[in-house]
């Protein structure tokens, strides 16, 4: 068992961390000093004594991961990144929460070196940490499954600091239940039970027995109570021992309930809601400095011995890294094919020839896009080992199961229907959409695999905060959202998306992809996997829809365009059959067939309609102006969008002269054909809208 | 203790319920028969032997409430509503899941008599049941606080049937923690632990110890295991006894873990995922009928003795009702003022003179709209006793505390800052936005009080499914969403709403209200309280903004319009100062001042700009055509919307010639003035947009 070396310089470094946090908030005049002050010993312990990290290489595969789920206490992390030499300097701390600084209000992934994940919205960090731990196991399974536990270069720990708020949010209940179920021995959570939130003493709203609750999830739970003697004693050794015990428990995730006093040792504001989210004020801050033996006249004071000691992390990191490199090199030599796979994954490239693996769906048949998607996933699964995923208890409905694959659960969790394998690739989230979103984020943040999670489109609402934070981080989480309109039918309005397509498109950086037939599904998946710059959701039908007969290139004459054009976001599926483009239909998903039918009907009346398939508005907006103009010539102002949901997304495209065939109210329970008729999602409505738009 | 009377006719009635459920699904060809079959004894027990309800009066104040959180098993409820004589007949069951029927896929509030709440999205029902129990206590506090427990006409129980999926969803974790905290002795939850969901055996994703978890929340937990002997024995007496014990435990909510076999006694499909969500098929259904002694050739078979027995519920309900009426009348006589209050609440009217209570904010000062809102709530609180609410741990930030009020928690839960009172009116949700939304729904469904809950606007995403279902039910839940733009400043992009205003407006039936100064806040609240036809969210600034100097009526000359116009959703705040209306600014919230400034700047250049304040697009759309045309004359196509968020909501109003001053990307961490400048939320940008729109 590891021995903790701790002396007066360490203690002073911890106090320095407190002072820096309080000074930084004081300087900018706002922020969250309290937790950063009282968590300084725990954070210092992790960064300086526990975690294996190389401050100079934030991408080192073998590093322990650190997640500050209590993102409001960003200084807890920034101060350690400064002390440990991760690239932050005192000037960065002084620039806290100001425009362009590396120290924004909450830690931002991709913005500050050493930050593994953007946190702040409570619960997201802790829930995503479960995804980090999933990914560590799945990657180990890809690269080094035979190594004994703890002896692979792919083995490491995931450490989390969580707050009362994290524990209260429902998303962590979902994710924590899964973590216990998955027996994630590589996950160690320090829960800062300071019992103070913005409304002061959490007893006003939060009196459950957290330790018992986590035991019920099958976690390993320890309590470290720094208040237990009546005095407040930051017993670092006790916390260190608990962390070591947590690491030693390899069959369960660990929760360490750390009982702290927020804002300690602030003379009058410790243990109050006031110190959670406001600057201390000059007198109080001076008081803290006096208590800790710092000069109240000085700010941002760091002694040489402290910084010298803490920057030792760089050298230690190099040494750890060098030692790890040996084991990695030995692995690489022994596993040349796996090394090749890892190298490919790290470049972000798909395997060569992946396009050849895509299924081709026969024209003039009918198939739901969800079923087509299931076939595509199974086909891709054979050639893309980094692809894994599953569903929030809707596998059969979402068609998210890669054929022949085992389930990513311990073998002991096997059921009659599913075979468990700790390195399996079928994910079972249970009925926990929000945790699913956060876990997907954790997986793709942890490493280069590609993970997807499915539910009904309506339940994208349940996972929306996780989707948004993926978009903010610009990470490539993938969502499979089936039953994508009122055409899901009899389940009725509680299950029928109306505003979801529009409101998801409203999230910046999120690509919403709604393929219009089975062959569009193939190329939609290919394009989604090619991209790594942000999350994507694929919206799929429950009902069967036609597979269009297509040519190999662009639309021309009576020949429909190839589905390869999906990658451009929107393309001319069918040219006007009359020689002139009088009106343009823009349609997605199951409504594309309505546009195609309306085009034929109008042609009989001598009206020339072009049909533009729009699988993704976001991808289309990335195309150059010339291409966009070629698809939607500005001279053609008669335009009709057709989508079984709000017109909201389409108004800027169809313009004042345009019309939208849409649904602007909640759905109803009936078979889908009745609903489409009652709600005006028909060829007749499309034809009428076209004529209205043309001023006929 | 009550004695259960149960004979062969009851047993046959239960079997009839099973058969009716299976027949109904078979007829339409889709639906969820399995749970309705195995839950038939529990549902029958509740409806026929436990609950105090009057099938002929679904609005009886004293009724026990029933919530089918497992909404997909709607037949569990429909069959009992038929058997008990609540208005459904066999033809309704035969019309299951078809257009216009009273028996849609999931139970819909306001659509089918006897349905207390729309359920289906998992977790919502159970979480809202906590709100029902809150409301029962608060209403008791308003009308009959002195009565000993169990002796008031306002005392009754809330019964819930929940499924595995309900227990897995995070929202129920949040709500259940609150229920234990609140010691809700009037809440009884039967958890149908059948261990089968769509992915078959729930062991694949759900192995936590639910009983221990609920004990950790301080619930009273019992287990009734009908599988415990190895055979499956539906021991109704055991369940009845557990319900009686749950009722007897008045200081804790109760969870009864009922271990059932889904789809029992289906010969080959019981205990499988297949029977969860699909019709049994002819042979299997015939097999069930044979096992139960029914004629496999017949469908929807109900014997006379069964229907005679079950319709006895009507008579029993009348008798219970009559007995209750005595105690109610005695209460009314003894409490004339309280009776008057109840009468007023039941009409849905506000007290007379409530407008006089509204605070008036002095012109030419500055105040944030959240602070103004806090003052309005405290002022209204004095005259509107049915108004109560609080925050998800952001009371001070959301300004949601009615001054001088006690907190709605048991006295034993008091903290230094808050005084607990079981009948208090300040709600503390903890950091649980989703449960807050569901609890608010439960409160307003239960009775005529008006409840509000606050969080940051960004966290409306966390509560969105609860908001949507309120909109679907058209019930008047109220949300206080502060920190309503990037102008919240330093907390950065994780906390800054960008797409939220637009995406909330996209929810049908939800009113989003964003007042443009403090006096608009007063009238916004008044209008919100006047309305009961759907939920409303009020979006409020963190930062101080100017209070405009206004006249008493419409805008005229240089005089700004009265804030009373807020009720119309949009109104002319300031007429063009040049005599001609060249361009129209539409603005909301903190951006209204930008429009006002831009109007002045343009006037100097001889351009006449009208400023339209748009506190609520939804309210504006309800106005007649003439009024809307008077505010936004179609002849004026030069229009500029100004809102610190997406332009999405505004495109249909500003049109092709219009422009939007908006923010189309995520925010950043800095002070708000810097952000507004960097993101182009400025007078200069508004002026430039106006000129562009004018084609200058």
From TrEMBL, chains A, B:
Short name of one Pfam family: Transket_pyr
Residues annotated as catalytic: 433
Organism: Labedella gwakjiensis
Family the entry assigns: Belongs to the transketolase family.
Residues that, per the record, bind substrate: 32, 276, 370, 397, 483, 491, 495, 542
Annotated positions for site Important for catalytic activity: 32, 276
Statement: the UniProt record of this protein carries the keyword Transferase: yes
Protein's name according to its UniProt entry: Transketolase
Necessary cofactors: thiamine diphosphate; Mg(2+); Ca(2+); Mn(2+)
């Amino acid at each position: 068992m590891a021995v903790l070396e701790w002396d007066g310089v360490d203690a002073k470094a911890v106090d320095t961390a407190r002072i820096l946090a309080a000074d930084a908030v004081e300087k900018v005049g706002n922020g969250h000093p309290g937790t950063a002050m009282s968590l300084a010993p725990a954070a210092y312990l992790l960064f300086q004594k526990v975690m294996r990290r190389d401050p100079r290489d934030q991408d080192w595969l073998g590093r322990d991961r650190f997640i500050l789920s209590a993102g409001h206490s960003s200084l807890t992390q920034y101060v350690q990144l400064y002390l440990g030499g991760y690239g932050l300097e005192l000037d960065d701390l002084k620039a806290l929460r100001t425009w362009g600084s590396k120290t924004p209000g909450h830690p931002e992934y991709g913005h500050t070196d050493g930050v593994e994940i953007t946190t702040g919205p409570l619960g997201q960090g802790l829930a995503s940490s479960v995804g980090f731990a999933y990914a560590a196991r799945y990657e180990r399974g890809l690269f080094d499954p035979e190594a004994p536990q703890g002896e692979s270069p792919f083995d490491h720990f995931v450490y989390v600091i969580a707050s009362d708020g994290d524990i209260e949010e429902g998303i962590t209940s979902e994710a924590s239940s899964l973590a216990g179920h998955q027996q994630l021995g590589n996950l160690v959570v320090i829960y800062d039970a300071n019992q103070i939130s913005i409304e002061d003493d959490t007893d006003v709203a939060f009196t459950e027995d957290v330790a018992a609750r986590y035991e019920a999830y099958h976690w390993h739970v320890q309590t470290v109570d720094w208040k237990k003697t009546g005095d407040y004693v930051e017993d670092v050794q006790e916390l260190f021992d608990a962390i070591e015990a947590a690491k030693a428990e390899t069959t369960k995730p660990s929760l360490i309930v750390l009982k702290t006093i927020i804002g300690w040792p602030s003379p009058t504001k410790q243990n109050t809601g006031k110190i959670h989210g406001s600057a201390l004020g000059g007198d109080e801050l001076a008081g803290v400095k006096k208590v800790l033996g710092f000069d109240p006249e000085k700010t941002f004071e760091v002694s040489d011995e402290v910084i010298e000691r803490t920057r030792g992390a760089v050298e230690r990191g190099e040494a750890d890294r060098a030692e790890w490199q040996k084991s990695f090199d030995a692995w690489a030599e022994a596993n040349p094919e796996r090394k090749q796979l890892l190298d490919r994954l790290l470049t972000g490239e798909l395997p060569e020839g992946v396009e050849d693996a895509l299924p081709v769906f026969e024209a003039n048949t009918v198939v739901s896009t969800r079923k087509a998607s299931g076939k595509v996933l199974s086909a891709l699964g054979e050639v893309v080992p980094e692809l894994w995923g599953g569903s929030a208890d809707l596998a059969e409905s979402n068609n998210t199961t890669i054929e022949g694959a085992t389930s990513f659960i311990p073998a002991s969790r096997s059921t009659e229907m599913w075979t468990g394998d700790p390195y399996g690739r079928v994910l079972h989230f249970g009925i926990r959409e929000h945790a699913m979103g956060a876990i997907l984020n954790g997986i793709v943040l942890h490493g280069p695999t590609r993970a997807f999670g499915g539910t009904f489109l309506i339940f994208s609402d349940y996972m929306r905060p996780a989707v948004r934070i993926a978009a903010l981080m610009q990470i490539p989480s993938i969502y499979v959202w089936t039953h994508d309109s009122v055409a899901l039918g009899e389940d009725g309005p509680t299950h029928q998306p109306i505003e979801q397509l529009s409101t998801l498109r409203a999230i910046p950086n999120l690509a919403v992809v709604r393929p219009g037939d089975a062959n569009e599904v193939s190329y939609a998946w290919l394009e989604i996997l090619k991209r790594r710059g942000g999350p994507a959701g694929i919206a799929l039908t429950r009902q069967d829809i036609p597979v269009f007969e297509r040519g190999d290139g662009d639309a021309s004459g009576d020949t429909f365009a190839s589905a390869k054009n999906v990658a451009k976001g929107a393309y001319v599926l069918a040219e006007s059959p009359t020689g002139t483009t009088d009106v343009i239909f823009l349609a997605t998903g199951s409504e594309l067939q309505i546009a195609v039918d309306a085009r034929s009907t109008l042609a009989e009346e001598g009206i020339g309609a072009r049909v533009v398939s729009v699988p993704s508005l976001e991808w289309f907006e990335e195309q150059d102006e010339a291409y966009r103009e070629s698809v939607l010539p500005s001279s053609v102002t008669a335009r009709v969008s057709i989508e079984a949901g709000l017109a909201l997304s389409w108004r800027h495209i169809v313009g004042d002269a345009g019309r939208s065939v849409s649904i602007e109210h909640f759905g109803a329970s009936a078979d889908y054909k009745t609903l489409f008729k009652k709600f005006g999602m028909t060829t007749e409505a499309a034809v009428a809208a076209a004529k209205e738009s043309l001023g006929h």
